[in-house]
Amino acid sequence: MNESSAHPGSTMLQGPVWNRILLFALPVAATGMLEQLFNASDIAIVGSFAQTGRTEAVAAVGANSPIVGLLVNFFVGIALGANVVIAQAVGQRKPKTIEQAVQTSLLLAIACGLATTLIGEAVIGTGLSLMNIPADVYPHALQYMRIYLAGMPAILLYNFEASVFRSIGETKTPLLALAVSGVINVILNLFFVIVVHLSVAGVAIATVIANVISSLILLAILLKTDKPIRLSLHDLHPSRAVAARILRIGLPAGLQSSVFAIANIIIQTAINSLGTVVMAASSAAFNVEIFCYYVLNSFTQACTTFVSQNYGAGQFDRCRKILGVSITEGILATVLSIALVLSCGRSLLAIFNSSPQVIENGYWRMVIVFAGYVFSVLYESFSGYLRGFGISLVPALLTVLGVCGVRLVWVFAVFPQHPTFPFLMLCFPISLCVTALLMAGAVFHCRPAVREKAAAAQ
Q1: Which residues of 401-425 are buried (b: 16+ CB within 10 A; e: fewer)?
Q2: How many angstroms separate the CA atoms of 137 and 57, rounded?
Q3: How far apart are CA 436 and CA 327, in angstroms?
Q4: In the chain, where are the structural domains located?
Q5: At what angle do helices 448-457 and 427-446 cross, to 10 degrees?
Q6: Radius of gyration of the chain (CA)
């Protein structure tokens, strides 16, 4: 097949932008929510059905959330590099590049997963010991993380596969695969905790099994699909050049995502110093508020994918329109989701832990963290816009400065002066505001659509 003749059938390059971005974003948001339900069901079930030490079990699973976020977010960022490379090839109508990128992406996922398992198992004990985890929580936290690390190849494979599907605008398939595995995850959680009495170990095993199922479902579809992202196991030809492009975009994106997780690990260390009740409250609140984050993040993912395809097709004015629509729809959807969550926030927190102290502390965390979510829409949309043009290092560096820098200063210099939970949580909206301003300046300075349009006209 001629490299430039086949039309991949994308709908991102023409027609109205408003409804297409919305139709892309909603399944992505739902997929993120289902992924979070893996961890949320872990916490809810051990908090409600564990035979003994329920608060310690909730704290143990929650204490691992920043580490899980660090690992998964880093590799999801690299997977986003695959998304950009494939989407640009779709816009350019280069089926051979699409084929190479799909094969390279999935092999990269498996290799990264195996390496993470081996390295993680060797260092996780030391890592957890540095996080000020209370003695009654530490053994359970270590047990959960060791089991979770064993499942990293399947976890990364699913995320890379989902990124491949999204590069052509197919967001429902990853959602359906995750829905099936999510139901299985909840059933297994209940079985291992109530019937087998495995508590923290049981929910970790259930999560790994569910991720294996979701990755195998998507792999089976990729092998049989008639779309340009079809995978052939009989003719695997990973490309070093394509891998280099994926990593050039994906590594800074992974760093950008990881910076949040690194900063959150530092914040989690400060939270741990406030006691088991605050740890449990923060863990429960995180597992509620994260659903609103997936709403806003879905529009920023749409921005990256739509911009990537239209940049590949040379439709630079449409790229700028996509940015404006993504920000507008993202803010509206985020505000609506926050209002819905806060209206029943205490009831949602009670699902994870019924202690009045846990619920009150958790609700205050949600209120403060949500105050920064509009800034997060702006920051992530600007960042996704730049990444769609292949500009990935600049937003990564600005994230290190705006997110990690501000939160480090807050935890080590400001928080010790007022060591309370609400005061600690103020670092979230403050750091997001600073980062949004920095990212807006980067977009104004780089002006990628204007620059590329001028270059194409020469």
Answers
A1: ebbbbbbbebbeeebeeeeebeebb
A2: 7
A3: 12
A4: 17-453
A5: 20
A6: 21
